[in-house]
Design a protein that fits this description.
The chain has nine helices and five strands; from the N terminus they run E-H-E-H-H-H-H-E-E-H-H-H-E-H. By secondary structure, the protein is of the alpha/beta class. Helix 2 packs across helix 5. The protein is globular and about 50 Å long.
C-alpha cells in the first residue's frame, strides 16, 4: 500500500493535480490544512509559535493570523527556519498518524498527500514515492497574479523562499510537466494514476 507525496513550487499546479487524483479515487489530504490544525489554539504548536513570534501575530479571536505571521518569516530566512523547527516535526507526526488511521480503517488505495514543502521539511520518510509538479516560471507568475492577486515581485519573493525545482527533482520519483493545457495535464495524471494502481497491487 503506497503513500505518495505530491509536491511542487507555488503556482506549479500541484493542487490541481491533487484534485484530479482525488476525482480518480485517491484518498488524499493537504499538508497545509494539517498545518492549520497544528497552529490552532488546541494544536501542538500554538503556544510555541506565540512564544517565538509574540502576541502580535494573533487575530482578535486569539487564533494565529497567518497573514501577520507570513510577512515576518518570508522577509527573514532565520525567522522562517525558527518557525519551521517548531512546526514541521509536529506536522510530520500528525500526517503519519493520519495515514496509519486511514490504513487501520481499511484504506488500501494509494494515499496522496499534497505538501509544498515536503523536501524542505525532510518529510521524505513518510512516502513511498514523491511526485513533483513543475511549470515554466512565467506561467507561474501569471497564474499566481490571476488566482491570488499577488504582483510578480511578491510571487518572486515566495519562489526564492522555496527550494528550486532543480533541487526538488533530485528527490522526485517522477515529474509531472504542467506546461500545457488543463486537458493535457489531466491525460498525464490519468495515465500516472493507472500505473500507480498497478504498482500498489504489487506491494
Amino acid at each position: 500500500m503506497l503513500t505518495i507525496g505530491l509536491t511542487g513550487g507555488i503556482g506549479s499546479g500541484k493542487s490541481t493535480v491533487a484534485r484530479m487524483l482525488a476525482e480518480l479515487g485517491a484518498p488524499s489530504f493537504d499538508a497545509d490544512k494539517v498545518g492549520h490544525n497544528i497552529y490552532s489554539p488546541d494544536g501542538p504548536a500554538y503556544h510555541d509559535v506565540i512564544a517565538a513570534f509574540g502576541r502580535g501575530i494573533l487575530a482578535p479571536d486569539g487564533t494565529i493570523d497567518r497573514k501577520k505571521l507570513g510577512p515576518i518569516v518570508f522577509a527573514d530566512p532565520a525567522q522562517l527556519k525558527r518557525l519551521e523547527a517548531i512546526v514541521h516535526p509536529r506536522m510530520f507526526d500528525r500526517m503519519r498518524e493520519m495515514v496509519a488511521e486511514m490504513r487501520a480503517q481499511g484504506v488500501t488505495a494509494p494515499i496522496v498527500i499534497e505538501a509544498a514543502i515536503l523536501i524542505e521539511a525532510h518529510w521524505q520518510p513518510l512516502f513511498d514515492e514523491i511526485w513533483l509538479v513543475v511549470a515554466p516560471r512565467q506561467q507561474v507568475l501569471r497564474r499566481i497574479e490571476a488566482e491570488r492577486g499577488l504582483k510578480p515581485e511578491q510571487t518572486e519573493a515566495r519562489i526564492k523562499a522555496q527550494l528550486p525545482d532543480e533541487e526538488r527533482r533530485k528527490h522526485a520519483s517522477l515529474v509531472i510537466d504542467n506546461s500545457g493545457t488543463i486537458e493535457e495535464l489531466r491525460t498525464q495524471v490519468n495515465s500516472l494514476w493507472q500505473q500507480l494502481l498497478v504498482r500498489n497491487q504489487k506491494t
